[in-house]
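Hello again, I could really use a second opinion on something today. I've been staring at a protein lately and its backbone has me curious. Please have a think about how the structure follows from the sequence. I owe you a coffee for this, so here goes:
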Amino acid sequence: MESLWDATEAQSDDVFNINARGTFFCSLEAARWMRELNQPGSIINVSTNCAALGVQHLAAYAASKAAIHGLTRQLAVELAPHGIRVNTFAPGPTNVDRNLHDDPDYERQWGSVVPLGRTAAPEEMVGAAVFLASDEASYMTGQVLYIDGGWSVQGRFPIQNLEQARRKRS
């Protein structure tokens, strides 16, 4: 997380290589494996709700995750004839170690801007992935499923906490 003005090409390349290119090549390998086995299946990508919103200091990160949304739609079209579904789930503010380490006030601050009034436990993401992989989602492909307590429809940010976390990582 760097200021747009402090961003470097190397940092941007790292973020895009991990998020966008990594997702592309993992999805491609999974699709090749399913096609080789003549086995229909489901590819589930992970993004973030930040891909749908403008967030200070997250230009490269948000853009790389938005690329996953486009990739998901494209792969859904190309892989559907092979019986392969491709979807993405996009978590919102979640209590993972990195977030809690970078921002000691993470749960309170981010919970205060989420319509449900709290951040998510990591376990709350499991159901979305299981659903997308299941037969219950057999007619769903090319979609992004937001699991964010309503945050993406409201889009409020605790900007001071983003700034504090950015400084801590620098």
About this structure: The mean pLDDT is 90. The CA atoms of residues 5 and 57 lie 9 Å apart. The chain has one domain: 4-169.
